[in-house]
Specification:
CATH architecture of the largest domain: 3-Layer(aba) Sandwich
Order of helices and strands: HHHHHHHHEHHEEEHEHEH
Largest sheet: 6 strands, mixed
Strand content: 5-15%
CATH class of the largest domain: Alpha Beta
CATH topology of the largest domain: Trna Endonuclease, Chain: A, domain 1
Low-confidence stretches: 154-165
Number of helices: 13
Mean pLDDT: 85
Strand order of the largest sheet: 1-6-5-4-3-2
Shape: globular
Structural class: alpha/beta
């Protein structure tokens, strides 16, 4: 690269960074403005004689006034959104420190989530992971937060923690929703075809896996003095600072599958794990599982082994909620002493 080309590149980088900062500043200012508008609307409504009728007229008249002065973006529906935004986050500090890090489109989706814990999760993760609006919408539709919770069950006495406040259980979902692989909705599926479909849509699979994951290898060979073993998929999570092995099973989970994964993790730790790496995690990704088998297997005592189901199609919200509730009941039942 010539000195002149390098000079041009430096100038472009400076301008791109400046434009990025300007967009972020404008976005933060507008999110704060919408919160303040919502606050002012609520305050004015509370002075009305009849809140319902008065509030409706107030928003209709305000919409006409703002549209005449500022153009598009201040419809009756949007003003209702501003009002709901304030009612969802009445603490101004939350708006300034958290909500302002995301665009209005992001906030408009998140504020419709009923569970406050889920809202906080999507706010935090959306900002930290820089989710696009489409990624955020999919995570909300597939109840990503609830699926993380469903994998926790009875946490071990000494759960693995990241460098921050998140535990290992904030990274493993159950079930995983793999509708983007476009697999057949039913029927026996070859494990090799499932593996190839994941490789073909690796970027989407990494997004579904969650934060911090990077792809390492497929069919990685680990060898002892007498035998060779092949691991379906190997990832590294830079937040957990550990390798993650995924074993794909297109049938129902068995004791043999769990024993095999336990052996893989132990071998990988002995043969591949670096001095600075945390213990390896093993995830058996299966078509279906019996929680009784999980209960009486080494998974119950080993905080680094997980069995998660995958779903081939995107379920409806009701179907997904019903599945999560069913899993929760089974885990609660099987973890009773």
């Amino acid at each position: 690269m010539s000195a002149l080309t390098s000079f041009h590149s430096d100038i472009k980088t400076i301008l791109e960074r400046a434009r990025g900062k300007a967009r972020s500043a404008v976005n933060a200012a507008m999110v704060e403005a919408y919160w303040l508008i919502g606050q002012r609307i609520v305050e004015e409504e509370q002075h009305g004689d009849s809140r319902a009728v008065y509030g409706e007229r107030l928003l209709e008249n305000l919409s006409k006034e703002l549209s005449a002065s500022f153009g598009k973006g201040f419809s009756y529906a949007n003003l209702r959104n501003f009002r709901q935004f304030y009612l969802t986050y009445p603490d101004q500090a939350i708006c300034y420190t958290v909500c302002s890090k995301l665009s209005w489109s992001h906030n408009r989706l998140i504020m419709r989530v009923d569970d406050p814990r889920a809202r906080n999760h999507y706010l935090r993760e959306g900002a930290e992971q820089q989710w696009s609006v489409r990624q955020l919408e999919r995570n909300i539709q597939t109840h990503s937060f609830q699926r993380l919770l469903s994998s926790q069950g009875e946490q071990p006495i000494n759960p693995v923690h990241t460098s921050g406040d998140d535990s290992l259980f904030d990274f493993i979902k159950d079930p995983y929703v793999l509708e983007f692989l476009e697999l057949p909705e039913s029927g026996q599926l070859q494990e090799s075809k499932l593996e190839q479909a994941i490789i073909d849509e690796l970027q989407k699979f990494l997004l579904e896996m969650g934060k911090g994951f990077s792809f390492v290898a497929r069919q990685m060979r680990i060898s002892t003095e007498t035998s060779h073993f092949y691991l379906d998929l190997v990832f590294y999570n830079y937040l957990l600072k550990c390798f993650v092995i995924i074993d794909l099973k297109t049938g129902k989970l068995s004791h043999q599958d769990i024993g095999q994964m336990d052996m893989y993790v132990r071998m990988f730790d002995d043969l591949k794990r670096g001095e600075d790496d945390n213990p390896t995690i093993g995830i058996i990704l299966c078509d279906s599982k019996d929680e009784t088998i999980v209960k009486y297997s080494v998974i119950k005592e080993n905080s680094h082994l997980f069995a998660s189901k995958y779903q081939r199609i995107l379920p409806t919200e009701d179907e997904l909620i019903a599945e999560l509730e069913r899993e929760k009941r089974l885990i609660t039942k099987n973890h009773k002493p």
